[in-house]
Amino acid sequence: MTDCAPDTPLVIRADRDGVATLTMNNPQRRNALSGAMMAALQTGFDQIAKEPDIRCVILAAEGPVFCAGHDLKEMGGITECDQHAGLFGQCSELMMTIVSLPQPVIARVRGMATAAGCQLVASCDLAVASNNAKFATPGVNIGLFCSTPMVALSRNIARKHAMRMLLTGDPINAQDAFAMGLVSDVVEEDHLENHTDALAAGIAARSGMTVRLGKQAFYKQVEMPLKQAYSYASDVMTANMQKHDAREGIGAFVEKRHPTWRHE
């Protein structure tokens, strides 16, 4: 495999009607999460976080493979513990950025998503997979347990499903990934882009304020004990009710008209 040409961007961004699409653009290396690829994705997400006009994000990939995980050639060339720690820390920061991003992120997956590539899918809020997509955490096969992918995977699917993937390294198909809850939608290959675009457009058409508030609240409450979660959620809804878009949305529903969002 060869790397991208020096003048070819590792991540390409395209915007349309409030939706930003970030496309990993190194199919020659199966869009592996090298340090450079992770830096390019980090830069892209950090910029989007500052842009309230962007109300949804699609994470896509060029070529037949979504993401092959960490770049093993790069990792194998590192001997210092601090360098390995830096690489895994960079990866963890990227995954946490996706979860904490104000805008929802939808993974658009065709082909394989393995190891940290599977982690990338699990870290996104939604994932649309083509019916030929496959997912695996195969680190155990090369003596390197998928410990950081495990964090995102175990927060998406039941423990025994996660452990089976982690202990065997066996790939699962798109239908099994859907049944487990790793992906939200499975569609025919020919419909993948249109389906994902329509899903993102539908989210972007809602109140940006409401979606941002709801995403943040979802991830915060899910880690809380039940009583604390209800108390927190009640506070969130109370604050939400004071916003223009909530009043506008309720008024539009009662008056049987389309709401006019200010996204605030």
Provide the CATH topology of the largest domain. Answer: 2-enoyl-CoA Hydratase, Chain A, domain 1
Silhouette: globular
Second CATH tier, the architecture of the largest domain: Alpha-Beta Complex
Mean pLDDT: 95
> Any idea what the radius of gyration is?
19 Å
Class of the largest domain in CATH? Alpha Beta
Number of strands: 9
> What is the chains' assembly state?
single chain
Largest sheet: 6 strands, mixed
Ranges where pLDDT stays below 50 over 5 or more residues in a row are: none
Helix content: 40-55%
Count helical runs: 11
Q: Note the run of SSEs as H and E.
A: EEHEHHEEHEEHHEHEHHHH
Fourth CATH level, the homologous superfamily of the largest domain: 2-enoyl-CoA Hydratase, Chain A, domain 1
Task: Describe, in plain words, how this protein is organized in 3D.
Strands 1-2-3-4-6-9 form a six-stranded mixed β-sheet, sandwiched between helices. It has a three-stranded mixed β-sheet with strand order 5-7-8. The protein has two domains: 11-204, 2-enoyl-CoA Hydratase, Chain A, domain 1 (Alpha-Beta Complex), CATH 3.90.226; 208-254, Lyase 2-enoyl-coa Hydratase, Chain  A, domain 2 (Orthogonal Bundle), CATH 1.10.12. The chain is of the alpha/beta class. The chain has helices spanning 35-49, 72-76, 81-100, 116-123, 147-154, 159-168, 174-180, 192-204, 208-221, 226-241, 244-254; strands at 11-16, 19-24, 56-61, 105-109, 112-114, 126-130, 134-136, 172-173, 185-187. Helix 1 packs parallel to helix 3 and helix 3 (81-100) packs parallel to helix 4.
